[in-house]
Structures are given as structure tokens and as C-alpha cells.
């Protein structure tokens, strides 16, 4: 939606970037404006939860130009298994 690669029916209701609202240089300029909601049902819907997930990504992942680079940045952001807990033996 941010890079313009999604269909129009998905990108038209999407909120604008925080940096597009302000003329000042902001630290959170690549963040999306949150979708306001009165009910918890809408807050857990796809658009607000996607905005929350997007805003939690590191800025390096948000600012890449290509989908392949975005996938690599997301993969690098995933938490890794702690090797201390996985040393070959199963728990009893």
C-alpha cells in the first residue's frame, strides 16, 4: 500500500504516512496514522492490525524500494530461537 503496489480498492482506504501530514522532519515519518476505532471488534480487524504491525517494523524495512529487499528485512527482524533452550534433547 505504501509503495503503490497494491490494488486501488485496498490502497484507497489506507491512512497517510505521518511524514505527509507535517512539514517538519519527524522521527516517525514512515509510520502510518493509526485507524481510530470505537469498538474492539474493529480494532482487531485487518486494517488497524496491519497498521500496528507496519509501525512496529524497523525504519530500514519500511524504506526499501523492492519487495525482495523488504522480505529480507522482515526475515532479519524475526526473533531467533535461543540455542540454550534447544540443545538436542526433548523436555520430559
Descriptive keywords:
41% helix; 92 residues; mainly alpha; extended
Set down the secondary structure blueprint.
Elements lengths: L7 H4 L6 H4 L18 H4 L2 H11 L2 H4 L4 H11 L15
Explained architecture:
The protein is mostly helical. It has one domain. It has six helices and no strands.
Summarize the structure.
It is built from 6 helices and no strands.
Helix content: 40-55%
**Overall 3D form:** extended
What number of domains?
1
Q: What's the end-to-end separation, in Å?
A: 47 Å
Q: Helices and strands: which structural class?
A: mainly alpha
Rg of Cα set:
17 Å
User: What is the string of helix and strand elements?
Assistant: HHHHHH
Biggest sheet layout:
none
Amino acid at each position: 500500500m505504501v509503495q503503490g503496489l497494491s490494488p486501488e480498492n485496498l490502497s484507497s482506504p489506507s491512512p497517510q504516512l505521518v511524514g505527509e501530514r507535517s512539514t517538519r522532519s519527524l522521527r516517525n515519518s514512515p509510520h502510518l496514522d493509526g485507524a481510530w476505532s470505537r469498538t474492539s471488534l474493529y480494532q482487531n480487524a485487518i486494517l488497524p492490525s496491519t497498521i500496528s504491525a507496519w509501525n512496529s517494523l524497523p525504519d530500514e524495512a519500511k524504506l526499501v524500494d523492492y519487495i525482495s529487499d523488504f522480505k529480507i528485512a522482515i526475515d532479519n527482524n524475526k526473533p531467533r530461537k535461543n540455542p540454550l533452550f534447544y540443545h538436542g534433547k526433548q523436555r520430559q
